[in-house]
Amino acid sequence: MVKQANPDHPVHTLIAERWSPYGFADRPVREADLCSLFEAARWAASSYNEQPWSYIVARKERGEEFSHLLSCLVEANQGWAKAAPVLMLSVVTFNFRRNNKPNRAAEHDLGLSAGNLSLEATARGLSVHQMAGILPERARELYRIPAGSEAVTGFAIGYAADPDAVPDPFAERDRAPRQRKPLSAFVFGGEWGKATDVVGG
Amino acid sequence: MVKQANPDHPVHTLIAERWSPYGFADRPVREADLCSLFEAARWAASSYNEQPWSYIVARKERGEEFSHLLSCLVEANQGWAKAAPVLMLSVVTFNFRRNNKPNRAAEHDLGLSAGNLSLEATARGLSVHQMAGILPERARELYRIPAGSEAVTGFAIGYAADPDAVPDPFAERDRAPRQRKPLSAFVFGGEWGKATDVVGG
């Protein structure tokens, strides 16, 4: 299944076709594909090339590793994410390595990296559903994440299921059309809140 | 000019070819291309579909708007970014609209959106150089950005120049190869700091 965006202006297929399914098929992800996902995450831009991102990954075939990672998601997310063949956490490191000063862009740059990973997944027919609903302190304890770093998001990775094979209420969510604010609501010109004329403001 | 990554595992062309030039050619960006960049930013994923991102854009042909935006960059970035035909700021909104509670993923999700924009640019032969070096309080004052939102990054957008036409020290930076940490340094398995065997740990 592919759930297209309905953009007002043309965008690349990888951007239009990326979406976050609740239903995952019972089909493993090849290790070579996983490596390419991490590789895509690796080549994101970052402030001072700090690369303030880390990932913790667990595959379903490693039962204990998988259930450890699943336990770092909030319960509502565990309900659907347990069907995915691969789970992951992203972790941000807050300070620069070179001088230990705060990196104001750290979480932003983690997002750039996660976005790359997600688009590489789309290019390989895989789907990624990112979650803010995780338990960072549970993850810290379980994986011994040091002070100065913190888990930020969870990822379910795999092949999107046919909604007919997905239990409710998740099938309904997967069938719902994708929606976004119009460009005029967030692309401004000379003043905050006033759309730039480039987007018809 | 295209400055390829040298990935250890295959990644999509758009990810391998994205880089952040210091030198920009004296060539304007079509409005239709700009709209597609914003459209790509629009379709990023976000926690609760909050879309906590806004953008403020200025084109060189609007002299006053452009110099206003340029003045929101730190001096070292003004030196090279003034050559770009389009400048931009990203702005994050920290709390959810629906309940005014803190959105823990706000800056991360801004990064997802900015990453989409950057890959759409690559697909159109454009380059984006993002900067953490901006003056958020200058931007707040100039654009009347309300409390609860804050400028996070700057963007120079345009066509990368031939390094032979770029003054030093910027040409040298544009000629330097791109470098990243190896996967084993940031993709972990059962424990923090230990590479997963998927990436050869």
Q: How many individual β-strands of chain A?
A: 5
SSE order of chain A, as H and E? HHEHHEHEHEHE
Largest sheet of chain A: 4 strands, antiparallel
Low-confidence segments of chain A: none
User: Which bin fits the share of residues in helices of chain A?
Assistant: 25-40%
Strand order of the largest sheet of chain A: 1-2-4-3
User: Number of helical segments of chain A?
Assistant: 7
Structural class of chain A: alpha+beta
How much beta of chain A, percentage-wise? 15-25%
Shape of chain A: globular
Largest interface pair = A-B, 79 and 80 residues
- Quaternary class: homodimer
Rounded radius of gyration of chain A (Å): 18 Å
- State mean pLDDT of chain A (0 to 100 scale): 96
State the separation between the terminal residues of chain A, measured CA to CA: 36 Å
How does this model look, in words?
The structure is a homodimer of 201-residue chains. The first copy, chain A, has 201 residues and is an alpha+beta fold. The first copy, chain A, has seven helices and five strands. Chain A has a four-stranded antiparallel sheet with strand order 1-2-4-3, sandwiched between helices. The mean pLDDT of chain A is 96. Chains A and B meet through helix 1, helix 2, strand 1, helix 5 and strand 4 of A and helix 1, helix 2, strand 1, helix 5 and strand 4 of B.
Can you summarize this structure?
The structure is a homodimer of 201-residue chains. The first copy, chain A, has helices at residues 13-17, 31-42, 63-70, 75-81, 106-123, 136-143, 170-175, and strands at 53-59, 86-93, 127-131, 149-158, 187-188.
